Each structure stands twice: as structure tokens, then as C-alpha cells.
Amino acid sequence: MLVTTQIDEQQLVNAAECGFVGVVRRAEATPERLVQVIDFPLPDADHRRLLWDRSLGTVLPRSTDLDLDFCAESFELAGGNIRSVAVTAAYLAAESGSPVTMPDLIHALQREYQKLGRLTLASEFGPYMPLLRD
Questions:
Q1: Section 34-56 average pLDDT
Q2: Global pTM?
Q3: CA-based nearest residue to 44, from 89, 9, 82, 88
Q4: What would the DSSP string read from start to end of the chain?
Q5: Counting CB atoms within 10 angstroms of each CB, which of 35, 93, 102, 114 has the fewest?
Q6: pLDDT confidence band for 131 (50 / 70 / 90)
């Protein structure tokens, strides 16, 4: 739930990308008003592909092995989760002193799945399943 004093159309879109399920103006945030919940569906694969690209940014060095199409197709995540994975992968890459690689993304995805309480399934991780850590 996002409670705010003002929200414009772009901010509403950003809230949806981050996976917020409800938006209420602060002045209207009374108990009887909070019964209205707006459902923001998860982004589709095309939108997730854009979110992956945007979340990794233009400055962060990327390895040529990154398969963002695979990530967009396989992992049904909200924009906020994609952003979290991208940040974690960037830290992993910085720690190793290399560009962000597909193993960095897979390890970051595994961590995000653990936070979400989701199982790491071969049907989602596909050929990258062997990269998962115990």
C-alpha cells in the first residue's frame, strides 16, 4: 500500500511497476477509505524486459553473456523485485571486480526468490539451474 499526499500519472505508473497493490492519497487514508485496493497485475514479458534493461542502467558494465530476454520470459516478477535483483547483481559484480554476468543475475535471483519465499524451480531457471548455490 502506498500512501501519499500527491500523485500524478507517472508516479502511479512507477508505483505499479514496483508492485504496489494500492495507492491512497494521505488526506484520504482513513480506515474506511483503505478498503479500496487497486490490483496492479505483474508486468508482461515485454515490459519486464524493459524493466531489466532500465534497472541495470547504462553505466554498469555488462558481460556479453547476459540473457535479459530469458530473465523477462522466465521470471514473473514485479518491477521492484527486478530492481532489487539488478542491485544485488551489481554488488556481486563489484565484489568480483568484473562486469555483471549471467551467474551474478542468477545468484541475485536466487536471493530474491528466498526473500519472497518462492521455490527455485528448474522450469523457471532452465539451463541456469546448475548456477544456483546450496
A1: 85
A2: 0.73
A3: 82
A4: -EEES---HHHHHHHHHTT---EEEGGG-STTGGG-----PPP-HHHHHHHHHHHHTTTS-B-TT--HHHHHHH----HHHHHHHHHHHHHHHHHHTS-B-HHHHHHHHHHHHHHHT----HHHHGGGGGG---
A5: 35
A6: very high
